[in-house]
Amino acid sequence: MKRLIVSCAACVLPLFLAAAASGCVTRHTETDKLKDLEFTVIDREDEPEELSAMIEEEKEHPFQMIYADQGELYIAEGYGEQPTTGYSVAVKELYETEDAVRIRTNLLGPEKGEDIKEIATFPYVVVQLEYIEKDVVFD
């Protein structure tokens, strides 16, 4: 009987301590948003030449890249080959945390009724923002 009580106490005590530790205390985590970042979506013709060349090499497959030049940070995300025209990429979030810049994008398909062509396309987005000395995390 004593073994059973000791075994139960050994199982329940960590659960109690975990529950007590997580109680009403709010902890700051590395994913907490400090602020939204201002950015510009760059047209293909305005991309830095070196970045355009890197994208051209990778565009057939999903990719994520960062590129820094002259105090600017460029973040690019592509979704690889798509079967038709009409696809685009939307930036859902771009914000700074304590130790990173986080970006979340979505692939948008052709809208209903949109005139599409059955040719392969390679949708991607490039955003430009002021250079920040932090890792970039793609969500």
UniProtKB/TrEMBL annotation:
Coiled coil regions in record: none
Any single biological process term in GO: proteolysis
Molecular function in Gene Ontology: peptidase activity
Signal peptide as annotated in the record: 1-21
Keyword Signal: yes
Keyword Protease set for record: yes
Residue span, PrcB C-terminal domain: 73-130
Pfam families: PrcB_C (PF14343)
Top-rank taxon: Bacteria
Keyword terms, alphabetized: Hydrolase, Protease, Signal
InterPro entries found in the cross-reference section: PrcB_C_dom
Name of protein: Protease complex subunit PrcB family protein
Lineage, highest ranks first: Bacteria, Bacillati, Bacillota, Clostridia, Lachnospirales
